[in-house]
Amino acid sequence: MIKRMVDIIGALIALVVFAIPIILVALAIKWSSSGSVLYWSQRIGRYGQPFWMPKFRSMRVDTPQVATHLLKNPQHFLTPIGSFIRRTSLDELPQIWSILKGDLSLVGPRPALYNEYDWLELRAMIGIDQIRPGLTGWAQINGRDALTVKEKVRFEEEYLKKKSLGFDLYIIWKTISLVLKREGISH
Questions:
Q1: Can you point out the beta strands (E) in 20-80?
Q2: If pLDDT is split at 50, 70 and 90, which confidence band does 168 have?
Q3: Residue 132: closest CA among 156, 153, 102
Q4: Is the pLDDT of residue 185 over 60?
């Protein structure tokens, strides 16, 4: 209950702090490429339930629906501002809505795509699927795109064992630091 309250308060604060960047990014996407401003990705949430998660669209509308690391040449599919909004993690800002709605938490394991079966299976075996996924998480700050599925699950299991308000606050602080330094982002 306390974690959910922190999520709501944190999301509302983030909405106020990032209101102008949200508007500017939305306008830049609209002006620089055709298609919708938001990209809705089907993800798997708590208890294995699917949900639709919004992101600012950083890829062209004809991009195959697979994890970015599975694309032969991800750079080929980026919109004119796609690389910038990914490097700065601005593409993640619409997920504030998912936090307010209850699909995401501020901190937890990142939600897997519906077709990342190996990752989902490993999570279910350990019980990671029993907690609400997060905007950021322990695996995110320990390698993000550079981690293998098994490494991500190892960090997620560690998070499951250590989770607490203090640990969540540490992960949030570390996430902010990494985003400002633009570390751990491969596309």
A1: 38-44, 50-56
A2: very high
A3: 102
A4: no
